[in-house]
Every structure is written in structure tokens, then in C-alpha cells.
Amino acid sequence: MALWNYYLLIMSQNSSYLLIVNPVSGRKSGKKNAQLIIDYFKKHDILLTVFFTDHKGHAKQYIYNLNASLFSHLIIYGGDGTFNEVINGLLSRLDNYQPVIGLLPGGSGNSVMYHLKKLHLYEACNMIINKKVQAIDVMQIRYKKTIEYSINMVGWGMVTDIGILSESLRWLGLMRYNIASLFHIMIRKDRYAKLIIDGTEYSANYLFVLIANTKYTGKGMIVAPNARLNDNLLDLIIVKNNINKIQLMKLLPQLFTGKHIHSKYVDYKQVSTLQIISNKEEPLNIDGEIYGSSPVEIQISEKKLFICSD
Q1: CA-CA distance, 80 to 121, in Å (whole number)?
Q2: Which of 39, 113, 123, 177 sits in a 20 to 30 Å window from 286, CA-based?
Q3: What secondary structure letter does DSSP report for 170?
Q4: pLDDT at 72
């Protein structure tokens, strides 16, 4: 492991603030922006210890093994995937470690930061410095014998297909989401599944199923306009296969305004529990990362996160 991953940018062994940086998130400007963050917090008499990740899963592993007595605050600079890693490392622990979480926009999608309305780095830093905290819901995701956590979204079907393709198109920048979406609209693949929603069973062929905890996904798509971080509910968006390519093409722009929820081709409701039972294992899109598989059961966890907010 490279030594710079543990480079202490601020020489303070007693700092209670840990800054976790994914240097390759978004536009790969993590190292440069880390110094800007450090300087900004230093002006407010807050010293940061800095940890750089250097591979996928690194943040999760590091937080899972972190000495709980060292830090009262964890500040995360990265995208939704980096947030997801830290949250899973934290909530997988057995010692009930409850640091305050500060979130900084460093990804390309930044869905959670869109929800918090803090897309500018210094605005997000200032939100942390103000030291206001709220408890937020966490989605618990069970598949096979595994439990994962999410604060953003879980997608199945076309949502996952788009995520897989857009990941391979990273060289296109933010346009990759639109291009991947258009491609999968044209091939329009549906899947059969049994959905159990709050104990009631439905069976059909679906284009996609998306479960959200925040309003946003992708790059500013308002997929769940009624979502709240602390309402103890899942926002469920379902698109069945009774929509053709032209209708789907017209529906896509509405995802950026939230008007899609009024379409006759979309079922949008707030629920407590959801199970997706498919004929075969299908990959999931969890906070923009492709892992896990159906059959899957999703509900609001008893565990909460405490995040900095306005």
C-alpha cells in the first residue's frame, strides 16, 4: 500500500476530525481539493487527519477497523459510491460507533449532495463547520446471506443496465449517463419479477424498479420528488413493460423535473418494505455501484446516521 495513503497532512495526533478522500472520484481532483478542504477548516480552527483511499473497498475496510476512540467526526470527500463504502464500513461494526458524518461533493453524480443542496465544495464545508446535525434513515438491503446499507438508492432492471454501461463510458464524462440511457431505451429489455410491497404480492414484467431514500439519482435526476431523509419510508418507482420506445424516450426528460411520477406508465408510492423476487439472479445498482443481486429485501434499518446539515 502506497505510503501517501496514510500521509498526515495536518500534524495533529489529537484531531477528532478524519477526512476520507477518494482521489479518483469525479474529475480525479481529490488530492488538490483535499488541501483546499484542509486550509478551509484550519481557518476555522479545525485540524483534520487525512486518509486517502487507493482501491475499491478501501474506505469500507478502513472504517470497519478504525479505532472508535480517535475521531468524533468523519468527513467524506467523494461520490455516492465513496459515501456508500464509509457507511457500510461504519454500520457493519459491532461496537455502535456513532461519529457525526460530514459529506463533501467529489463525485460525478453527487446524488446525495443534490438532495442536501450543497454542490459547491465550500458551501458543503461550511455546513459541517456550522455543527448542526440531523439523524437520517438508512436503507437495509438483504440478498443471499449479506446485509448492505444505502442512503441513496437501489435499482433493479434497466437502472442497473444503465449503470453498468455508463461505468464503461467514464471517458465521456457526465454525458455517459444520457448515452447509456438512450442505448437501453432502444434495446428496451424487460424482466419478470414478483414484487412484495408491504406484504402485498404483485407479478409482472418490469423495465425497472428503483427504491430511493433521496430525491435524486444520476446527474440531477429528480426520481423521487417526495423523498425525505428522515420520514422512515422508501420511495418506490416502478415502470412496467407496457411502454414503448417512443413513450420511454418522452418519459426520460421528465426524470429531471420529477414530472414522470404523473405518467400513467409509472407507479410511484411510499412504502415500508419491498422484496424483488426474480426468476434468476439479477445485479443491483446500489448508490451507483453495481453489486449484490436479486432476490433482495429492502427496508428502513433500525440504525440511523447522524449527518451535518443546515
Answers
A1: 15
A2: 123
A3: G
A4: 95
pLDDT of residue 252: 84
The Cβ-side half-sphere exposure at 91, using a 13 Å CA radius, reads 23
Task: At 33, list the grid cell.
Answer: 481539493
Q: How far apart are CA 255 and CA 120, in angstroms?
A: 23
Q: 237 with 261: CB under 8 angstroms?
A: yes
Interatomic CA distance for residues 211 and 118, integer angstroms? 23
| pTM listed for this prediction | 0.90
Contacts of 176 (CB under 8 A, 6+ apart): 165, 166, 169, 170
**What average pLDDT does range 123-150 have in this prediction?**
96
Continuous segment of H or E residues that includes residue 87: helix 80-91
Query: Degrees (nearest 5) of the Cα angle 161, 304, 128?
Result: 90
178 vs 272, residue with greater confidence: 272
Candidates 136, 122, 24, 16; CA nearest to 72 is 16
The three-class DSSP label of residue 10 is coil
Tell me the residue type at 102: G
Neighbours of 17 (CB within 10 A): 21
Cell numbers 480525479 label which residue?
28
Cell numbers given for 54: 487507493
Give 31's pLDDT tier (boundaries 50, 70, 90): confident
Give the pLDDT confidence score for residue 15 in this predicted structure.
52
